[in-house]
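QA checklist item 7 of 12: single-chain prediction sanity check.
[x] sequence parsed
[x] length recorded as 233
[x] structure emitted
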Amino acid sequence: MIKVNKAHMRYQMEYGQSRTIMSYSANHAPSNRRFGPLIIFNDDFIGPQDGIGMHPHKNIEIVTYMITGQNYHKDSTGTESHLIPGMVQVLSTGTGIVHEGMNPSETEEENHLQIWFEPDRLDIPPEHHDFAYDQVKMMNRLLPIVSNRAWADEKALPIHQDVTIFVSRLEDGHEVTFAQAAGRSMYVFNLEGELLLNGETLLERRDAAQITGLHQLSIIARKEAHFMLIDLP
């Protein structure tokens, strides 16, 4: 089954231009609450010199995927990061972490996805990981960038949950397929362009899809597309 969440149906938070696609809070996304261990999926637009100051988290796996602009990040592990497009970050908050994220630009808006997962175990020591993946490798294929398992030919940031995040840029008319193990689910978020799922379900710009009960997913770009696919238990 493929359930589509259209872009115009998402909840917009008062903070900045944060568009909540999925949330465990009934106040933020009452018709679209969690999907397995995936509990929050935000499409955040942060204005120049704006952001969120120091605040705490505990026992959440937080993934930040940069799209445009830049983000300065600092946390209580003693790590500071300057994130730009082509970078991804994973915070395993475990026993507790305090962090901030700000757009340091004086003129340019920033856009990133922030995705929260429940961890597979509680109260681990906090961890911070980020890296710049090879954007060429995501052309017309699925590139793993975050995963709880090792990939022979690719680096993927570790996460304390049985999930893998893939990203891809598909040229118009190109297709990728994903074989899904029994009992697992998929979540697809289309950043740009148009995607056709299994020849019948259209995802337009900023649409999302929750996918269950399928053993294989075909993804064809009807317009040049940039999208994310998450493999979930």
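[x] summary fact logged: Residues 68 and 153 are 27 Å apart (CA to CA).
[ ] second reviewer sign-off
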